[in-house]
Specification:
globular; 11 helices; about 45% helix
């Protein structure tokens, strides 16, 4: 069976399941939707957020501020490139804010062994959560075995308490490819699927989050990331099924301001 036939078969099976769930009134959302008149408290929203700084030109003083803000507002984690893990791990020790690092970022195209090495190094330096980028080219080429083994290799590098999130880079995928990527991530033992790196021209959308939630069900997490700039957008993504948000404009979001940029 070739790539197109496999995608067609799996997509039809999944769409049938979604139709049955929808008719039953249960599409597998992880979060109860908030009504238009409700406003999530800032402290509650902060608990959804991975406070993120991934720009290559970022300097030490910015990471100091990142950690200070995360401690002050009680964000879920601080997410940085792996070279900054020792720095932020020291700043966050004993605060309850988790250390998150990206793996294979932002392209996901390096050798699987290189990703696994980076994952082990990140964990050894203090990372408690890993956000890895899938091999997008392999997925689009139909090499689903490589995509799965790529994720499994990072999973094997994780400790029992390490949270593994798989970045699909949804802006580069068709809906059918998003479905396949979610199914593979679930099969490979990931804890979350994540929309985007924020570096490929497209970020999180309500459509993608809702689709991902419906595919992975309530057992896995869904992280929305890329281009999240205000409170209302954050809430719409949570209502669609996200239970984690990757944000560079975290303070603007929880205080109701409008951010000028994302990551």
């Amino acid at each position: 069976m070739d790539h197109n036939e496999l995608i067609d078969r799996i997509t039809k099976e999944i769409m049938q399941r979604l139709s049955e769930k929808s008719q039953a009134g249960n599409v597998g959302a992880a979060n109860p939707a908030m009504s238009a008149g409700q406003r999530m408290p800032a402290a509650e929203l902060a608990g959804y957020i991975d406070h993120t700084l991934l720009k290559p030109e970022s300097v030490a003083t910015q990471f100091e501020q990142l950690c200070s803000d995360a401690i002050r507002y009680k964000f879920k984690s601080v997410c940085v490139n792996s070279s900054w893990i020792p720095f932020v791990a020291k700043k966050l020790r004993g605060t309850g804010v988790k250390v998150c690092s990206v793996i294979g970022f932002p392209l996901g195209e390096m050798d699987t062994r290189s990703k696994a090495f980076e994952a082990r190094s990140a964990i050894g330096n203090g990372a408690e959560e890993l956000d890895m980028v899938i091999n997008v080219g392999a997925l689009k080429s139909g090499n689903l075995k490589l995509v799965e083994e790529d994720i499994r290799a990072i999973k094997r590098a994780c400790r029992t308490n390490t949270v593994l999130k798989v970045i699909l880079e949804t802006g580069l995928l068709t809906d059918e490819e998003k479905i396949i990527a979610c199914e593979i991530s679930k099969k490979a033992g990931a804890d979350f699927v994540k929309t985007s790196t924020g570096f490929s021209g497209s970020g999180a959308t309500v459509h993608d989050v809702a689709l991902m939630r419906r595919i992975v069900g309530p057992q896995m997490g869904v992280k929305a990331s890329g281009g999240i700039r205000n409170f209302d957008q954050a809430i719409s993504l949570i209502n669609a099924g996200a239970n984690r948000l990757g944000c560079g404009a975290s303070i603007d979001i929880i205080t109701g301001a409008e951010a000028k940029g994302s990551y």
